[in-house]
Specification:
Elements lengths: L13 H7 L1 H18 L51 H20 L10 E2 L4 H16 L4 E8 L6 E11 L12 E2 L4 E2 L9 E10 L3 H4 L8 E6 L9 H13 L4 E6 L17 E4 L1 H16 L7 E11 L3 E9 L6 E7 L2 E2 L3 H19 L8 E7 L9 H8 L1 H5 L1 E8 L4 E9 L5 E9 L2 E5 L4 H8 L1 H5 L13 H4 L7 E7 L16 H20 L2 H4 L2
Parallel strand pairs: 6-7, 7-8, 8-9, 12-14, 12-15, 15-19
Antiparallel strand pairs: 1-13, 2-11, 3-4, 3-10, 5-9, 6-10, 11-14, 16-17, 18-19
Helix pairs in contact: 3-4, 3-8, 3-14, 4-8, 8-14
The protein binds zinc ion.
């Protein structure tokens, strides 16, 4: 699953990343099939409508942030197993760290780090990312690690980061939709890279194109209109990137002047994913999407389809020559061979799961191995890396370039990325406007674990994880890696990635509340076990 959260990664590598991801996609498909089966048992896919009233009587979508994306009920996640020792992995402590990390993103939104603050996150190239790295480095120091530093990274000259500064998508009212049909702002709309509107505003008629497959498009004239396409991600949006891109190409070829992606995910969230899907192209959250689909249906029935129009306002900016920092902590062992542990610090929106949880676990591992009782034989390098989401800033690659002595002595890399989000299933309940809700259960979302060199020694250690630590690893051994691992190409050693692919990824729904405290503890303890076992093993077993 290469490139998992590099939304803006170069197109040239996209096909390769998607191909390499298939092993994980398989596991997620199984989950999604179960999801669709239960989602079909009641309610048709349409917002409830009264006979008359504004907007054909279709219930209006909720305001942004009016309700959480998913329901987290009072039943907690199942506790950790008895194998748990060491207060540095206590779930409550790690969750407090995730809260701190989320706080860096929220503060950036409040101080309007980007434009008017509609877009926020820990964004490499901006203070929100560097502040997070400084915090991680401070935690390494407080853990008693003496060799701690930050290292500067300058964005590659050929690369740039596109960010929206302010925007608004407004459905225009028309008395043909019923008296009192005033304009409706789709608050979950989020522009997608590299959308630009000359003059900053445009108005056009909408046309629904469903899945935008060739069989559908042959019947639809999209010329001069904004095409509204439906996207049903299986797991996270990453898995739809290839399909969205190729459909967008076809829509543009047929003359569409913009694209709305109705992203059928839990809640009514802003989602930062997909690129080059039409200009301008916007992602629209689940409940806004249901409203829009229902209105387009009713308008078609009423012979008023050509009256459904939207106004789009957009200001965006392309950033170049950005600067960021990596955070590095090194525990020197008796041996100069090195185990490298990595978590990227950047994230879109609150980014509690991508990658607040991974960074919190990295810090917990630093606290663990800094204790004299746990002192490793080998050297361990902890890397809080920047640039996972910012093209041209590559934390791992910069680390390798800046620390050749450590890089050339590496025996293994572990990438810790999206590791403790709770698992969500469709709820029995529908929201007031007719959208299927999602609810947490007592476990965590499945975690894919890939080992690049398929070392039997490493795979066996991972196989034992679920029984011993209760981690929810998918049952398939694989060699998959995340985009983060691409930057580590300079290390010719076993690379291990642990990663979830849950539906809230890259959305505003990925908040602190969806992180499982016992889940943080489970994966933290498992990784401590893995690293300790590797520390004691001969190099040939790790890299046969
Ligand atoms: Zn990530």
């Amino acid at each position: 699953m290469v490139g998992a959260c590099r939304a803006n990664a170069a197109l040239a590598t996209k096909a390769g990343r998607i191909a390499a991801m298939r092993s994980v996609a398989t596991a997620v498909v199984v989950l999604s099939l179960a999801v669709s089966a239960s989602a079909q048992d009641d309610a048709p896919r349409a917002a409830p409508a009264k006979k008359d009233g504004p907007w054909f009587g279709v219930a209006l979508p909720p305001k942004a942030g009016a309700a959480p994306a998913v329901k987290v009920g009072p039943r907690p996640p199942r506790p950790t197993t008895a194998d748990a020792t060491g207060p540095e992995f206590a779930g409550a402590l790690l969750k407090t760290d995730v809260e701190t990390i989320v706080g860096f993103a929220r503060a950036a939104g409040q101080r309007k780090e980007i434009g008017n603050g509609q877009m926020w996150g820990r964004i490499s190239g901006f203070p929100s990312s560097s502040t997070t790295v400084e915090w991680a480095v401070d935690q390494f120091r407080k853990a008693g690690i003496a060799d701690v530093k930050t290292q500067e990274i300058t964005q590659d000259e050929k690369s740039s980061l596109w960010l929206p500064l302010s925007w608004k998508v407004t459905l225009l009212g028309d008395q043909a939709f019923g008296p009192g049909s005033n304009e409706v702002v789709l608050e979950s709309a989020l522009p997608v890279s590299p959308s630009v509107i000359q003059g900053g505003t445009m108005t056009a008629t909408l046309v629904y194109v469903g899945a935008a497959s060739p069989a559908v498009l042959q019947h639809i004239d999209v010329k001069g209109k904004i095409a509204v396409q439906l996207i049903v991600p299986q797991g996270h949006m990453l898995f739809e990137r290839g399909a969205v891109d190729s459909r967008a190409e076809e829509l543009l070829k047929r003359g569409a002047i913009g694209v709305f992606n109705l992203v059928r995910l839990p809640g009514n969230e802003l989602s930062r994913d997909f690129s080059n899907c039409g200009n301008p192209c916007f992602n629209i959250g689940g409940r806004d999407g249901l409203f829009l689909e229902s209105v387009l249906d009713r308008a078609a029935q009423a012979g008023a389809a050509d009256k459904v129009r939207a106004r789009i306002d957009l200001q965006a900016q392309t950033y170049r020559s950005l600067k960021a920092i990596n955070g590095v902590g090194v525990i020197r062992g008796a041996s100069d061979e090195v185990i490298v542990l990595n978590a990227h610090v950047d994230g879109w929106f609150d980014g509690a799961g991508d990658n607040g949880d991974g960074l919190a676990v990295l810090v917990a591992l630093a606290r663990h191995f800094a204790k004299p009782a746990n002192k490793p034989q080998r050297t361990i390098a902890f890397v809080a890396s920047a640039g996972h989401h910012t093209p041209g800033i590559n934390g791992p690659r910069s680390f390798v370039a800046a620390n050749p002595d450590l890089a050339k002595k590496a025996v293994m890399l572990v990438n810790i990325e999206h590791v403790a989000q709770r698992n969500f299933s469709p709820a029995r309940t529908m929201s007031a406007d007719g959208y299927r809700e999602a609810v947490a259960d007592s476990g965590e979302a499945p975690i894919a674990v890939g080992v690049t060199n398929n070392s039997p020694f490493l795979q066996e250690l991972i196989d034992g994880g679920p029984a011993r630590f209760g981690v929810n690893f998918i049952s398939e051994r694989s060699t998959f890696q995340s985009g983060e691992t691409g930057g580590w190409a300079g290390l010719n050693v076993a690379k291990v990635s642990v990663m979830q692919a849950p539906p809230l990824y890259h959305t505003t729904g990925e908040v602190l509340d969806v992180i499982s405290a016992p889940g943080l503890e489970r994966i933290g303890r498992f990784l401590a076990f893995l690293v300790s076992a590797v520390d004691k093993a001969p190099r040939e077993r790790i890299n046969p």
